[in-house]
Amino acid sequence: MEYNTQQRKLPLPEYGRSVQNMVDHALTIEDRAERQRCANTIINIMGGMFPFLRDIEDGNRKLWDHLAIMSDFKLDIDYPVEIVKKESLEVKPDRIPYSQNNIRYRHYGRFVQDMIQVAIDYPEGDEKKQLLKMIANHMKKDYINWNKDGVEDQKILDDLYELSGGKIKLTTDDLRLTEQKFFAPRRRQVSNTNQQKRKY
Fold first, then answer.
1. Which of 5, 14, 128, 186 could bond to 122 as cystine, CB 3.0-4.6 Å?
2. Do residues 135 and 119 touch, judged by C-beta distance below 8 A?
3. DSSP-assigned letter for residue 166
4. What is the pTM of this model?
């Protein structure tokens, strides 16, 4: 008995080994007209497996692209559409540079650090006080998400002072933070009928 893991790897496994065997058979057909008819039949089968491809734009072209890929671009037929080039499939995408931004406290995240820098340059006044209150409350929420045991307001204000490079110094008298509350999920109540069934 031969397992699929012992056979060659399928280029497009979503179509299965039976369709791949059809494509392999088409490659052995010497008569060009017969080979073309075989290719058209395979396309109809592939379209039946994924009918949504028929409804989307360029869906038919995708099917012919897949047929070319499954034949390793060796199937000599008259393609009704311009198929994808083999070279374009081998081009690796450009490497996406990973952000190297240094985050002092990861539980606060980068957003809080950026907001603190905005607050530093903000003109003095009521708007700045509201901004600082919003930032500090957000920091408290983030901290409690990270540490469910809670946190003192002074700890948040100390972290705000440190993250601002000593430019924002507040006390609990200057700013009262919102009390963050977390509620346990409510348990689903079991009906009396279900309870009675469990007894017997």
1. 128
2. yes
3. T
4. 0.47
Query: Whose CA is closest to 171, among 194, 159, 152, 154?
Result: 154
Q: What percent of the chain has pLDDT over 90?
A: 26
Nearest-angstrom CA–CA distance, 69 and 78: 15
Of the two residues 172 and 198, the one the predictor is more confident about is: 172
Within a domain: residue 113?
Answer: yes
Neighbours of 60 (CB within 10 A): 15
Number of helices followed by number of strands (H, E) in the chain: 9, 0
Domain termination site, one of 59, 89, 119: 89
Instruction: Name the band, by pLDDT with cuts 50, 70 and 90, for residue 200.
Output: very low
Rounded Cα distance, 171 and 158, in Å: 9
Same domain? 111 vs 152? yes
Domain assignment present for residue 190? The answer is: no
Give the range of the structural domain holding residue 48, as residue numbers without chain letter. Answer: 9-89
Q: Region 95-120: what's the mean pLDDT?
A: 79
